Known about the structure:
D-amino Acid Aminotransferase, Chain A, domain 1, 4 domains
Amino acid sequence: MPAKSYVSWFADLSLDDVPVVGGKNASLGELYRELTPLGVRVPNGFAITAEAFRDALSAAGAWDELHALLDDLDKTDVKALAAAGHRAREIVYAAGLTQEMREQIVAAYRQLEEEYGPDLSVAVRSSATAEDLPTASFAGQHDTYLNIRGEELLIDAVKRCNASLFTDRAISYRIDQGFDHFKVALSACVMKMVRSDLESSGVMFSIDTETGFRDAVFITGAYGLGENVVQGAVDPDEFYVHKPTFRLGHRAVLRRVLGDKQVMMVYAPGRTREPVVNKPTPKPARQRFCLSDPEVLVLADYAIKIEDHYSERAGAPRPMDIEWAKDGVDGALYIVQARPETVASQQAATNLESYVLKETGPVLATGRAVGTRIGSGPVRVVVDSHHLPDFKPGEVLVADTTTPDWEPVMKTAAAIVTNRGGRTCHAAIVARELGIPAVVGAEHASEILKNGREVTISCAEGDVGRIYDGRLPYEVETTDLSTFERPATHMMLNLGNPELAFKTSFLPNDGVGLARMEFIINEYIKAHPMALLHPERIADEREREQIEAMVKHYPSPAEFFVQKLSEGVGMIAAAFYPKPVIVRLSDFKTNEYAALIGGAAFEPEEANPMLGFRGASRYVHPAYEEGFALECAAMKRVRDEMGLTNLKLMVPFCRRIEEARKVIDVMAKNGLTRGENGLEVYVMCEIPNNVILIDGFAELFDGFSIGSNDLTQLCLGVDRDSEKVAFEFDERDPGMFEMLRLAVEGAKRNNRHSGICGQAPSDYPEVAQYLVRLGIDSVSLTPDSLLRTMMAVREIEREMGKEPRAEAAE
Length: 810
């Protein structure tokens, strides 16, 4: 009788082999066999079958004692769980491997050594037969051993992997997921170590993990071996790439966020008990990204190919969770694991859930938001696992970082806060799976937040997660989009914050009617464009130093501005692609420009900035023409390099037709020629002259967007910044309704798009209803008023006999 084979090489495995070698090994086999021919690099290796695990326990007579330990275990009894887990691991480790198994593993290791050379080190990973399923990841439940060299250490690592099937966290997780302990077996994975200890590594997803937005690849990374990113020991760098435009051949990074990357895991020097150690990351390395743009794009290509393959295999979209590593010896990027993403991809597309904070308060700490929810409760700082029994359900868990052993307690938390970690760390993964708000990388949170203090954790305000003092009121709004009637009138959104773009895109919408450039300049650039170009003209030494610090890691101050602005606008354009996104060119007033870093040196003092040097007049003036050229360069980058041609541009506060001609000419000189590559240029209709001379403006622009705020101000002669006459400011004045009528009818007469992006329709549904009766093409609203106003608009359309939109809500 031939000897039983306990070893299977990756080249002989596929996703069909989960019962034989577990999810991780089956996926690695699928990757190695099917994706390597497509250019995706995967290190070679082999699996030790689940049958080896079962046969080893049978040969040792271990099953009866394991059943006695686990069959009636109450996992809520933490001490009983710990005792049972500890004894179960002892039993499995002591069972070891049969002589036949040892010989086959050593022979395979020697074969791998022949392929990679005598300096070979391997990673020994755990692959359970119930692992990496579309609805249950088992991520981090079992153990991994890195930088294993030599036959005896390999055998020991395999035995330890086998024992890790019964870690406390894995026992608890199986109970929660409804898996029988004895119908799950462990298959060890032995694969060539990628020398990322000399370079970098991380985790990426073919979906945005916080919102479920499917058109982006989200990549995280740090220096050294990847365990630090997975475990949350560092704040990693983050990168986004837009999949639809990437597929069309546009190779551009959509957004970058520099992480602290505090420590790096490397091989331990000399012969030690620990094969890897953490050491501080050198400061220069922390201040630069761990991947170049071309490397980010290689990883995005890998992620898209992997997602496409797994989706085709499954017959349905299959977003993926992928681990990558860069080898410091050959400089190549490798994929070391891929599994289905199990949280964001499972969210129901027909139900829109929005958490809305009703009040704000003092912010105690900030970090990276995980998910989009809000939670509150008393703080419980947990220094280490020995203090976990002190934690009470409903408290906010605050810690330096978390490990899989903490999961039984994490399940009962109102929210989670960690000092360290990125949005792909252990705490983030568990929080998403449990639906708990979490803020990771909130530096010094465990020192700032004190036990018993009531706090509110908000992840509903974009990428930044905030820990507020006290319990703040919030609401959860749920909308069933499957029954939502879309109005015939196009309903668009007003949006300025790129961090909210992916989340907001799930609202039923027809694109963005107003994307404010000012928010991006204020929040991400912070400096006056002219100050970046001419720091020598700034008198304040501190401001010069601030600018120098901002731009020091960029090729030039101009590139800093262009990259930051293009990333912010690009995120919004990508979120709504291919629907139109209308970006208004900068419309700061002189006092607002002066408030930017270095701005006072370049701005005049005006008695009434609202009517002064703003909007179109700046673009053609020598005092700002260099700054406007930077704005144009950023917009050109979004359209040409990123491929986001759904971006339309809008000129604000354009007083005269002659001024409009000059602006159109200046834009063309800066690479933004109206009509070229489909570029449309709109104008704000916010000055009475725009309405009176609408036929002339229509010759120069593709559409009009009514700015009801400024139009009301200038129609009624009310300074909207003045508290004294605020009571006279009313967008529902009869004169304003006449202005609206003239504007809409004038646009129609000239076959130009008519829309409104001012505040009036958001605040007053009757204004939106009036415009709908006039036949306006689009109404743009703030996200919080969109659904309410859509229902009011649909009601008017019913009265007018208009049918709802045929397409389903998006």
